[in-house]
Amino acid sequence: MTAQLKIDFVSDVSCPWCAIGFGSLESALDRLKDEVRVDLHFQPFELNPQMPSEGQEIIEHLAEKYGSTPEQIAQTQEAIRARGEGVGFAFGARHRIYNTFDAHRLLYWAELEGCQVALKRALLQAYHGNGEDPSSHEVLVRLAVEAGLDAALAQEILSSGAYATEVREREQYYLNHGINSVPAIIINGKHLIQGGQPPEVFEQALRQIAAQGPEE
Fold it and tell me: Beta-carbon neighbour count of residue 134 at 10 Å?
C-alpha cells in the first residue's frame, strides 16, 4: 500500500541550501515512488526581509551579515556547487542578493492554482542557476507563465500587493514554531528535517515515517 505524506517545505528563493534540499527531496521521492505519495507545499521564509528592492552585492552582504571573508565565501560557494551537482542542480554565477517577498506572494497564489512546485523550481533555477533577479516583476511574470500560470493575473497580483497578509501570517507562524533557518522540511506537521540533507537522509526518514502508518 502506498503511504500518503504531507510535506511543508519552509524555504526562501535566495537560499542555496534550499535548492539543494529540494533536489535531494525530489531524488528521494523518485526512489520511493512506489512506496510514498506526497502532498508537497512550499511555505515562505525570508532570510533578508529588510533587503531593499535594488538588492545587495553578495560578497558585501555575506561579509556584513556573517563576517565572512572573500576566501571563506569562495570556499562555501564551491561546496554548494559540488553539493548541487550531486543532486542534479547546476549553480551558476550569483552576484547579488535580492528581496524575495513578491516571489513568495506569487508562490502563494501558485499553490491555489496547483502550480506551486513548478513555479518554485523555476524560481530556484532562475536565481541560483541563471543569476536572474527574483524581485523583478518582469522576471516573475515570465516564470509564472513557464509554470503554467496566466501572465495577466500574475501581473495583477504583483501590482496589487495581493496575498501579502497571508504570506506574512505564514512566515510568522513558522517563526513562532521555532523555525529560524531554512530549509526546514516538516512531514505530517510534526517530523522536522533541517538543512540541505543528502537524498539518503530524506529517503530513510520518509520511509520510516510512512511505515508508522496514518497519523492519529
Answer: 24
Angstrom distances, CA of residue 95 to CA of 7, 83, 120? 31, 19, 20
Angle between the N-to-C axes of helices 116-124 and 101-112, in degrees from 0 to 180, rounded to the nearest 10? 150
Q: How far is Cα 61 from Cα 166, in angstroms, rounded to an integer? A: 28
Q: pLDDT tens across 64-117, in order?
A: 999 999 999 999 999 999 999 999 999 998 999 999 999 999 999 999 999 999
The span from the CA of 163 to the CA of 149, in Å, is 16
Question: Are the C-beta atoms of 39 and 5 separated by less than 8 Å?
Answer: yes
Using alpha carbons, list the distances in angstroms from residue 111 to 12, 49, 63, 96, 197: 15, 21, 35, 27, 25
Per-residue DSSP letters for 8-37? Answer: EEEE-TT-HHHHHHHHHHHHHHHHTTTTEE
What are the residues whose beta carbons fall under 8 Å from the beta carbon of 134, sequence distance 6 or more?
13, 14, 98, 100, 103, 123, 126, 127, 140
